[in-house]
Amino acid sequence: MNKLIKGAIAAAVGIALLMGGATTLAFWNDSANVPGGTISAGTLTIAVPGTIPATDGWKSGSTAIANISNYRIIPGETITYTKTFSVTATGDKLTAAAGLTGGAITAASASAADGALAGYLTKTATFTVGGVSTSTVNAAAGTQTVVVTTTLTFPNATAANDNLAKLGSVNLAAFTITLTQN
Fold first, then answer.
1. Does residue 29 lie within any of the structural domains?
2. Are the C-beta atoms of 80 and 151 separated by less than 8 Å?
């Protein structure tokens, strides 16, 4: 390359560098510390207490069911299961709802009657905290006593549908009460 071309390239590069520097904006800045601290996570646990109240268990209305495995539910009937738990719920804005695991009520076999009964039974769970019925448990200091009442209902539909569930059986072996944060 001749000296003239090399000089022109060097001049163009120099001008480009100078122009790039001319578009840079300088401004003042500063910073300050924000008072911080430590954040801790809360907890949500449910456990069976050491002493189980006599009021816990299965009932049809106010009548205790001695052995749920021997009980024969009928259309239109509702049975309840009451259980006292110790719940630890700590955390700002923490609330939790009671429920049953997905497989809490399953057909005892592959028979049509067992499947029909399992399909008809409906389930709900509610709390009683400090003697007050509620749908949620709130955070509290320490452990609180929570009574969970689970209701199983065999709706009284029609004779044709109810007859499908005659002699049906369901398995409650996976009947597990859950607490789930709202």
1. no
2. yes
In a domain, 32, yes or no: no
Residue 129 located in a structural domain: yes
pLDDT for 38-95, tens place per residue? 999 999 999 988 888 888 999 999 999 999 999 999 999 999 999 899 999 999 999 9
Q: How many domains does the chain fold into?
A: 1
CA-nearest of 112, 84, 77 to 98 is 84
Structure tokens at 87: 């719940």
Question: Do 153 and 105 touch, CB atoms closer than 8 A?
Answer: no
Rg (the chain; Cα; Å): 34
Domain that holds residue 76: 43-181
What is the rounded CA–CA span in Å between residue 17 and residue 87?
69
Q: Please give the Cα distance from 79 to 66 (Å, whole number).
A: 13
Task: Write phi, then psi, for 78 (nearest 5 degrees).
Answer: -125, 130
One-letter amino acid for residue 141 of the chain: A
Q: How far apart are CA 158 and CA 163, in angstroms?
A: 8
**pLDDT, tens digit, 9 for 90 and up, residues 135-152:** 788 888 888 888 888 899
Q: Is the pTM of this model over 0.70?
A: no
22 lies in a domain? no
Cα 178 to Cα 103: distance, rounded to the nearest angstrom: 12
Of 118, 123, 119, 174, which is closest to residue 151 (Cα–Cα)? 123
